[in-house]
Amino acid sequence: MSRIFSTAGMVLDRREHKEADRLYIFLSPTMGKLEMLAKGGAKISAKLTPHLESLGVVKILLVEGRRGLTIAGVDRLESFHTLALRPRAALFARAGLSLTDILTRPHGAESRLYEQTESWLRFLCGTGDERLDTLSWFLHTLQCLAAAGYEPELGSCVECRMPLVEGGWWSALRGGLLCEVCRDTQEGGGYKKIQKGTVRALSFGLTHSLNEINRLERSAPVLSEIEEVVETLLWAHAPVLPAVSLRQMVSC
Fold first, then answer.
1. Topology (CATH level 3) of domain 3-79
2. Which of the residues 9, 59, 148, 170 could staple to 192 if both were Cys, CB 3.0 to 4.6 A apart?
3. What is the pLDDT of residues 68-113, one digit of tens each?
4. For residue 228, what are the β-bridge partners?
5. Would you tell me how many other CB atoms lie within 10 Å of the CB of residue 15?
6. 3-state SS, residue 216
7. What is the DSSP letter of 15?
8. Phi/psi at 14 (nearest 5 deg)?
9. Domain parsing of the chain, residue ranges
């Protein structure tokens, strides 16, 4: 017997299915990530497609049958349509949705990550294109990783738990910083020295809003280290490996 229910959330991605249908990847704050079919969704005359293709929050009526979820209706709850008029902001928005897709597992409880993704879209709506750069993007990614359960340890050594005052040695696999003594006792290599200014910026990014992060001073050496920390953390722990680097995701 089929079950009919509704849920609110946002579309993360879509792909073509058969000749005229589309499959949509949808994130709900209460039901997690869902895959659902829009019959006839690839047709020009499809009534559901405009709401599903635009950036925003929608409420979807679903029919659950033996072959999965089928979309029966869509209502738009909140639109971020202004982003579509700004190519750079739209690029950052789509990158944010792709990142969330990478970090979520089917049917997992993803309320924190959902809220972070909504915050990202609202931040993009209220921020001029001249302030949209890789620093905001990298620190948003860091917040998403923390929301998904991969928050790095930055204040103390992940091995001995001693406080770190002058930075430390970054280990993506360990998910944090090592002091120099513990770094020297670890087998293998691949540890990266992270300066104190970078640790401060990363810590600030974990505890402050995107608007506050956007006022941080841009320093090339710090930005380079932030990129390496966030990129390697993502590659070490994300459920799905990204197809391209974080920088490439927001490159025109």
1. OB fold (Dihydrolipoamide Acetyltransferase, E2P) (2.40.50)
2. 170
3. 999 999 999 999 989 989 999 999 999 999 999 999 988 776 799 9
4. none
5. 9
6. coil
7. E
8. -150, 160
9. 3-79, 81-152+171-249
